[in-house]
Amino acid sequence: MVHPGTSCAACAAALPAGVDVCARCGSRVELQSRGGLPAVLAGCVPAARPARTAAVVTDGVVLLLLGAVAGAVALLVDASTTTALAVGVGAVVLGAVLGVVAVARTGRTPGLHASGLRSVGLFTGLPTAARDRVVLDVRAGRDPVRTLAPVTMAAILRAPADSAVAEPTPTPAPAPISAPSPASAPRPVSTPPRAPTVVVALDDGQRFEISGHALIGRSPTPARDEHVDVLVPVNDLSRSVSKTHASLRWDGRHLWVADRGSTNGTIVLTAQGDRSAASADGVAVEPGSRLELGDRWVAIETPEPGGAA
User: Residue 131's CB: how many other CB atoms inside 10 A?
Assistant: First the structure.
């Protein structure tokens, strides 16, 4: 649990009193999340109770007006009070259902929009119909649907598990330079080791380890004679993710991402904040980046050494 004022909301490092910037990940303290929100909601402000109440009242008034208008029109057309009442109640029910869909797709209803609020997932920062939601005041703080957290994705994914700030170590005195031995041979230049696997972490908490070829989508299905090592299903009730949205292929250093003709495309967001669209030919994506598939996103990370993903 991250405690505001005593630890960093991005990497959970301890924050000494009076510091403005986290010594480990570099995020500014004034941009940390308020109210104990997760790091993905850094810079966001939870909505106050009066604002949430005003949004609920506004939505109720809108539903009543919708029912009254629909009932009045039905009364003029049919001249039957029973029919008008049934039409009015049906309009209210339909409006309530559309409100639930609007919250799941955009995080807003007429009342939330009028009050400057947005409902998002507590651990994803995206609109959702799940129970772990939080209502944010996007006028007073950051809107997570429109802007990224003010810390890099690499800082969040690659931060060490311990919360102690590393103390600067003194620089050792240089050793005396000795003449090279005539018999000594130059050492070969070593190349970075190839990671055997990569982990894709879905915004709903699911994690999949990939060592070769994988397909991701609502219901990924290999093509005829196509060999696939892992299928990564994405739960998406809004159907913004295609059935077989993209293919992922890990070569030990890069994850090659290719769009499979998806409806909404596959967007690559690097740890430096660069955005690009993955083509059908594929693009190399480094760990620490994020893939946006319709309304959902997937983080790319390497597993901890010696640990399971």
Answer: 7
